[in-house]
Write a structure and sequence with these properties.
Strand order of the largest sheet: 3-2-4-1-5-6-7
CATH topology: Rossmann fold
Shape: globular
CATH architecture: 3-Layer(aba) Sandwich
Structural class: alpha/beta
Distance between the termini: 38 Å
Number of helices: 10
CATH superfamily: P-loop containing nucleotide triphosphate hydrolases
Number of strands: 7
Largest sheet: 7 strands, parallel
Radius of gyration: 17 Å
């Protein structure tokens, strides 16, 4: 594809052509992201990274954030990084299925990407896609990682605000935070906070933060993504940072 063709797709995508946007993202996945990233550096798009261990409700929280953003009449793109299919190598599309009730909303665009074995919680081509979505001009871009472990912290380098999600009763989530993602969190979310143990999880996180000189003031927000409880507070806090 020529630069002129790419510019035409970008112009069409900015005008709301979702087919053009899909073709643009397919193209940029195959190119060097450095130039795109440089072009997007002045973008006004608010990029929120959402990460945490599998099972803490990242997709439900992302979906609830979409609803909250759209209630404010602002546009949002989602980059959902899924595990790779062992057969095709493509994304398993679990996140897109969970967000399907937003599919007919013209103010929402959802793109799933496969990790294809790339470590870090994102896909190798994610920076180029993130830059392209910022250039299109969405008000928000939500990046949901595949599920973090000790070294999977790339989302922080590609986000304005990084949200680390845990759930009550999941000790592994606290351990993951201690091991690798604790340092990247701008906001901690205790999701599924209607469950027993939510206050204990908040207390454990606060104790961890108090032992770190530069993380003591990190916000901790309790949410119930399935009902929307606490999600507006989360969005407001992200906008403050």
């Amino acid at each position: 594809m020529t630069k002129a063709s790419m510019d035409e797709l970008l112009a069409a995508a900015r005008n709301g052509d979702r087919r053009a946007l899909g073709r643009l993202l397919t193209f940029v996945e195959e190119i060097d992201s450095a130039k795109l990233t440089d072009q997007a550096k002045d973008s006004k798009t608010k990029v929120i990274g959402i990460t945490g261990s599998p099972g803490v409700g990242k997709s439900s929280l992302t979906s609830s954030l979409i609803s909250t953003i759209r209630a404010e009449n602002q546009t949002v793109a989602v980059l959902a990084v899924d595990p790779s299919s062992p057969i095709t190598g493509g994304a398993l599309l679990g996140d897109r299925i969970r967000m399907q009730h937003h599919a007919l909303d013209s103010g929402v665009f959802i793109r799933s990407m496969a990790t294809r074995g790339h470590l870090g919680g994102l896909a190798k081509a994610a920076p180029a896609v993130i830059a392209a979505l910022k250039l299109v001009g969405f008000d928000y871009l939500l990046i949901e990682t595949v599920g973090v472990g000790q070294s999977e912290v790339e989302v922080a380098a590609n986000s304005d605000v990084t949200v680390v999600v845990i759930a009550p009763g999941m000790g592994d989530s606290i351990q993951a935070a201690k091991a690798g993602v604790f340092e990247i969190a701008d906001i901690f979310v205790v999701n599924k906070s209607d469950r027993d143990g939510a206050d204990a999880s908040v207390r454990d996180l606060r104790q961890m933060l108090e032992m770190s000189f530069d993380k003591q003031n990190t916000p901790i927000i309790k949410t119930v993504a399935t009902t929307g409880l606490g999600v507006k507070e989360l969005l407001d806090k992200a906008n403050e940072l």
